[in-house]
Every structure is written in C-alpha cells, then in structure tokens.
Design a protein that fits this description.
The chain is built from twelve helices and 13 strands. By secondary structure, the chain is of the alpha/beta class. α6 links the parallel β7 and β8.
Length: 362
C-alpha cells in the first residue's frame, strides 16, 4: 500500500486498514465491474445515515482556494471519468473533495468501445482504459445535477462542493461538426454546473485529439466563446470554461494550443489527460490499447504542468491531474504552480482516505 503510515492519525489508520481489507476483494473482479459496484455504494452516501457516517470519517479540513472566479473548500478534486453519468456526485461529496468533475458527457447516449476496455496494471500501480465516452447522455446527467442547482439556490448560492461537467462529442459526430455537440452541451449545462471542461484530449474517441491542433482548436473554441457571449447577454450568467489537454503534445503543439486557449478567452487549462506512452511498464497488460493513467504518468504529467505554468505565466490557472498517488505528489504539483489538483487512479490503489490525507498534509 502506498501510504506513509507514520504520518497518519490513528483514526486515519483505521480507514486505511479498512480499505486494505476490501481492495483484494475488489481486485478479484473485472475492473469495470468493480468500478460500477463501488459507484453504486458511494451513490448511497447521498442518503442518511450513510451520509453522516462518511462525512464523519472523510471530511477534510478547510484549505480554501480561489480559482477561475470560484471558491473551493480545498484544492483536491475528483477527475472526470469516475462518475460519468452524475450518479454518485452527492455521495462523492462526502469523501472530502473540494470539487467533483462529472463526465465525460456526450449529447446523446452511446455504448462506448467494446469490452473488455479497462485493465489494471497492478505491478505499475496504473490503469489502461479505452472506454470511449460510454454514457447515458446529457439529459440524464442534467436531471441528476438539478439537485446541485436547487441546493445552491436554497443556500444563497453557497456551494457545498464545486461541481464541474466535462464535455465531449459523440463518436459518430464528424470532427467538422464537433462544435455543434459542445455548444449543445454548453446550453444544457451552463445553468447546472459551476464550471465546464472542453475535452479534446481523450485518446479513446477516434480523431478527437486532432481538435487540439491550432486550426481546429481555434474554430472550436472560437465558436464556444461566441456562444458563451450570447448566453451571457441573455442573462444566463457566466460559467468558467476550461480546456483539457493531452500529455503527448509536442512543445510546438502545446504552444499553439495554449495560445488559442488564451486568445479565445477560456478560463483555465487542465493538464493532463491519459497518455498513449508505455515507457517502463512491467505488467503483461502493457500492450493493451487505450489511455494510461496512474504512477507511470506522474513524471510526464509533472513536466507538462511545469511547461504550461511557465508559458502561461500566471495569466490562467492550471489544474493538474495524472499520476497523483500520494500527498507528496499533490504537494509537488501545487508547488509547481497548479491552482488545483485532481485524483482518480490514486483512489483505486490507495482508497477514499487519500483525499483527506492529502488535504491534511498541505
């Protein structure tokens, strides 16, 4: 287990021991089956008395952060991909997160890529996935997020947890029409989400990463920026929009993408998505196609973060994700200039106590 137990309180130790008991059982299941099972259990955390129980165990101390106009209780968030359909965000909010990113959401339901499509690389503390944006579609997710809007309004616009929505195009939407999918999703989720993310960096939808190229990205973000102006003029408010980039861009490609992101008035960058790289892996499953996450992504993701922070020079906030498996990993990202960090695969190997442990050490 990747824990520095000498620095953990006795109560936290009990939580870690509890997950260490469950993890071998979960790892006997197919990864996607195990994920759906844990998601269903966490979904129950939205309801009493489990809600109070989880909050008593996992509530993290306040370490407030302000980024892209929003106030976060702490800088640790859940990356997109864990709760694709917004089923469990209320239960996930009990685990100490400062923000939760739902999705990736597509306008219409789609099954994603054929199974098997998720693989644990235990020796490498990593995961390969080629999910391909499976989901129930925007209407279902929007219905599940309306509670967030209602609770926010009833509390005088005070947010218990920041909820973002990660947006993607449907697989069968041609690249030249991709802006239509993103704009459709914007119109639906701007009133419901605290921020939106334009996902053009998943490696598991054919051609999607081409949207990171200068010309296509300029067309896409230009259309999104214009639509946001029209919506703001119509008094629907202003919602921050971030762009999520891949870790596999060349230096020139990264420069081009950041220039377009700034010029089109986007509010921040998320670095990075999963990688197609396979350097140094030991697992027999290393040749499976798809995006790699977890420990092997750490060095690459940190390098991209430092490059993005340097190039932006404080003009836009950066959210760091990829290979954050411990409090030390998270602290390095914040020290390198990240405004926020997100975890996902770290939870698979370390358990839900990871969030509180990170926040306590900041």
């Amino acid at each position: 287990m990747p824990w520095n137990v000498t620095a953990i309180s006795p109560s936290a130790n009990r939580n870690l021991d509890m997950y260490s008991l469950f993890r071998p059982l979960l790892f006997k299941l197919d990864p996607e089956t195990a994920h759906h099972l844990t998601l269903q259990i966490i979904h129950l955390g939205a309801y009493q008395p489990l809600n109070l129980f989880l909050r008593a165990i996992y509530t993290a101390p306040e370490k407030p952060v302000k980024a892209f106009g929003l106030h976060f209780h702490n800088p640790i968030g859940l990356a997109a991909g864990y709760d694709k359909d917004g089923l469990a965000w209320r239960g996930l909010a009990t685990l100490g997160f400062g923000h939760i990113e739902v999705g990736t959401v597509t306008p219409r339901p789609q099954p994603g890529n054929p199974k098997p499509r998720v693989f644990r690389l235990v020796e490498d503390r990593a995961v390969i996935n080629r999910m391909g944006f499976p989901g129930l579609g925007a209407d279902v997710v929007a219905r599940r997020l309306r509670f967030h809007t209602l609770s926010r309004l009833s509390n005088g616009n005070k947010r218990q947890v920041i909820v973002g929505v990660n947006l993607g195009k449907n697989k069968d939407t041609p690249l030249e029409n991709a802006a239509n999918d993103y704009i459709t999703l914007m119109r639906q989720f701007m009133p419901l989400a605290d921020y939106l993310v334009i996902n053009v960096s998943s490696p598991n939808t054919v051609g999607l990463r081409r949207l990171q190229g200068r010309e296509m990205l300029e067309g896409l973000l230009g259309a999104i920026s214009k639509e946001r102006e029209n919506m703001a003029t119509g008094r629907r408010g202003y919602t921050p929009i971030l762009v999520k980039l891949a870790p596999d861009l060349s230096g020139e490609e990264l420069d081009d993408a950041l220039e377009v992101i700034e010029r089109t008035g986007m509010d921040g960058v998320i670095a990075t998505n999963t990688t197609l790289g396979r350097e140094g892996l030991r697992s027999k499953q290393r040749e499976e196609t798809g995006g790699l996450s977890g420990e092997p992504l750490r060095v690459r993701s940190e390098a991209v973060l430092r490059s993005v922070v340097k190039k932006l020079d404080g003009r836009l906030p950066v959210v760091s994700v990829g290979g954050i498996m411990s409090p030390e990993d998270a602290q390095r990202r914040l020290d390198a200039g990240a405004a926020l960090v997100q975890v996902y695969t770290g939870l698979v190997y370390a358990g839900p106590g990871l969030v509180k442990q990170i926040v306590q050490k900041l």
